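Researcher: Next entry in the queue.
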Amino acid sequence: MIEAPMIELKAASKSFGGTPAVDGVSLRIEAGAFCVLVGPSGCGKSTTLRMINAMIAPDAGAVEIGGRNVASLDAIALRRSIGYVIQSVGLFPHWTVAANIGAVPQLLGWDKSNIARRVEEISGALQIDPSLLPRYPRELSGGQQQRVGVARALAADPGIMLMDEPFAALDPVSRAALQNELRRLHAASGKTIVFVTHDMNEALRLASQIVVMNAGRIVQAGAPAAILLRPEGDFVRGFLGREDLPLRLLDLAAVVEKARPLSGAGGEIARPLSGAGGERIAATATLRQALALMLEHHCARLVIENERGEITGEIDIDDIVVGPDAK
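Model: Structure for this entry, 327 residues:
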């Protein structure tokens, strides 16, 4: 994997037609972070993203990657070293899926065997059906096209990934699936990811660092839990959804963190298992998803299963809404 360097914006500003789009933004994104820029339309998120890969030059201030000002770097070489994914995907319509995925390695001069190997590898990682590789983008669904777009951005193994509302146009099922794949890939690779969205639920699901923007400025930045527990000002509280704050906190914890393990798997459960016939939930699901499933099925207890479908324990509603310290 190519090293994931730190990104830093130093009082960066950009105006269009005399109107500030980004106004004195200073931001440090550590190597390996998953940084999500969130805020309403027109708040400067996308402009900030495009300044990072020199698609837009700041009018004032600086953008640095790995301690080097991007203005001093070759812009084309910089962009080829950074993965970039946008909402409209932008696949080459007359190229096959395989050719689209291998586009950047081809531009970088990789030989055909290495390109083919990498296309196969990254397609597998993103669960792209091999039968789709010889097809053309028009033959794919929106979700499949977006997977191909992410695969293309990852193909040359960049240290940095920039993603501008890549899942906004997808249906909820495809969107959730791609979010899960992206979380898994980030955890496995340690890449630096900067992701733009206006969806706070998406931000909380993905980010290790959230940057809330409004009117071209950073209103608050920090870890998801810190922002939820200590929102600064009415704008942040309103954007989070005041009445939804307790539920949003449940998005930050996985079911496995509250699981009661089976005997022989690290301890004894406090009561009998609901049994294999009970409603099941993945250990990696969030507590909010567990609560929603309980409400949907009018039950107070769920069976927990691992990725192999094996029952590993259970969780009940008290584990979510009360917690062990209050019992």
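Model: The longest strand covers residues 19-29.
Researcher: Noted, moving on.
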